[in-house]
Amino acid sequence: MSLNKPYLDVPGTTIFDADQSRKGYWLNQFCMSLMKAENRARFKAGEDAYLAEWPMTHEQRAAVRARDLNWMMRTGGNIYFLSKLGATDGLSFQQMAGSMTGMTEQQYRDMMIAGGRSPEGNRVVGEGGDAQGPASQTAAWREWQEAEARNKLESAVESAQTAPETRAGSHAHVTAAVFSSHVPAIGAAIDMGKTEEPYWAPLFKGFERSKQWMKDHRPDVVFLVYNDHATSFDLGVIPTFAIGTAAEFEPADEGYGPRPVPTVVGHPELASHIAQSVIQQDFDLTIVNDLRVDHGLTVPMNLMFGSPAQWPVRVIPFHVNVVQYPVPSGQRCFALGQAIRRAIESYDEPLKVQIWGTGGMSHQLQGPRAGLINAEWDNRFLDRLIADPAELATMPHIEYVREAGSEGIELVMWLIARGAMSDVAGSGKPPRVAHRFFHVPASNTAVGHLILENQI
Ligand code: DHB
Ligand code: FE
Questions:
Q1: Of the listed 182, 267, 295, 439, which one is catalytic?
Q2: Which helix (H) or strand (E) holds 435?
Q3: What does the alpha-carbon distance between residue 286 and residue 364 come to, in Å, rounded to a whole number?
């Protein structure tokens, strides 16, 4: 993992970053459940039974039972979540914070009344301040540590007997970009066995080559840019950009029942790395651990992989708001793609990553102008996407709406994928067009499709 963590040498301090969050996910979610009075009552009536309902590690359960906040934090707990447990026990924030310092409650109170702990000597590990010592230790934690040390020794002896696997030390890279429309009716045609019908056959024929290409160019991970269609995100919270950092994503029920497609397996480590890197490049991403994926993601997966029992790649879902205005500009999407490429290329595992842009092409799903198709404009968009994406990125939203229909705005997402290719920012050769396809109609939409291979 190559996350940049300049905060590791701050004494007596655990920064709640993506790695900690992943480690502590269920511990923190358990704590959140204590916001409900009925759950607090059940927890108090039987701690072990209540804890057993949560898929936490044994160590996390032991830390909770010991009420050892330092221990809980080491296993991924965050103080704002852990405070719900403290509150359940009737503790104040001052009591909780003080309990982690090795001081008595009274000593901690007195220190705060006297002006608080001084930062002097407490900025960097190794200075001479009063926060440099080890975290306060409970007997339960010491016992756990001793047992752990014994287990580690045993498993080290065991693994020394089997040769460790070595891996060529290089970085992840973007191999290709794939662009495709994502109409729900395409998913329904697949699910209902209608792909051979005259209406659908020409469309699916256009993706035959894509499936063959995919067999020959299978990546380890697909970074899949799509928009959630009022499925996981309603009007309660509207993230402009959201990255899925979970281990798994279930297909959503969009009102017709969930599609009979496999669970999407994520890549939490790479996704968290990309989140951190891209946020540090000044793009605000929403981090999402609980996400059901809709047709925007599952339909392109079928078009590129067919209908296997398991998806053959890991997928990082990346959502862009194109439902409620303001939606991000083409230029911002194009720049974001460049930031995503830098993030992927700084991940220190030799993963092959494809980036996909989905949605579009011309379509309007609403009002008296519904059914608008502009094949000429769409094809010009494909030309410009291949040959001059920087210029294409300057196109204002209003042109998408006027020329490609209100839902044609989904095409801004394609600029994220295009921005992540190696010719952008002057570093590589122009991409090779491995496949291009255009078809009208699928339901209300013009279907466009491109496969661009990076030429390094
Ligand atoms: C259709 C197209 C879409 O992109 C979508 O999200 C929903 C419906 C359609 O053409 O029916
Ligand atoms: Fe859509």
A1: 295
A2: strand 429-442
A3: 28
CATH number at residue 314: 3.40.830.10
Average pLDDT, the chain: 95
Q: Are residues 294 and 396 in the same domain?
A: yes
Alpha carbons 428 and 416: distance in angstroms, whole number = 17
- Probe residue for ligand 1, chosen from 225, 231, 363, 373 as the CB with the greatest number of ligand atoms within 8 Å: 363
Phi-psi region of 230 (alpha: psi -120 to 50; beta: other; left: phi over 0): left
What is the residue type of 11? Answer: P
Q: Is residue 166 part of a domain?
A: no
Q: Distance, CA 302 to ligand 2 centroid (Å)?
A: 15
Are 200 and 125 members of one domain?
no
Same-domain status, 281 and 427: yes
Confidence tier at 272 by pLDDT (50, 70, 90): very high
How open is the CA angle 372-192-310, to the nearest 5 degrees?
105
Residue 142 sits in a domain whose CATH number is 1.10.700.10
Residue of 371, 365, 375 whose CA lies nearest to 440: 375
For 401-421, what is the mean pLDDT? 98
Among the atoms of ligand 1, which is closest to the Cα of residue 359?
4
CB of residue 97 inside a 6 A radius of ligand 1: no
Q: How far is the CA of 263 from the centre of ligand 1 (A)?
A: 22
pLDDT recorded at residue 212:
98
In this prediction the pTM is: 0.90
Is residue 295 part of the annotated active site? The answer reads: yes
Query: What is the C-alpha separation between 431 and 135, in angstroms, rounded?
Result: 54
Number of domains in the chain: 2
Q: Is residue 167 part of a domain?
A: no
Nearest CA owner, ligand 1 atom 10: 444
Angle at 42 between CA 38 and CA 48, to 5 degrees: 150
Q: Is residue 375 part of a domain?
A: yes
151 and 182 share a domain? no
229 Cβ below 6 A of ligand 1? yes
The pLDDT of residue 167 is above 50:
no
Q: What are phi and psi of 433, to 5 degrees?
A: -85, 105
| Statement to judge: residues 81 and 225 lie in one domain | no
Give 137's pLDDT tier (boundaries 50, 70, 90).
Answer: confident
Q: Are residues 127 and 178 in the same domain?
A: no
Range(s) of the domain holding residue 101: 6-159
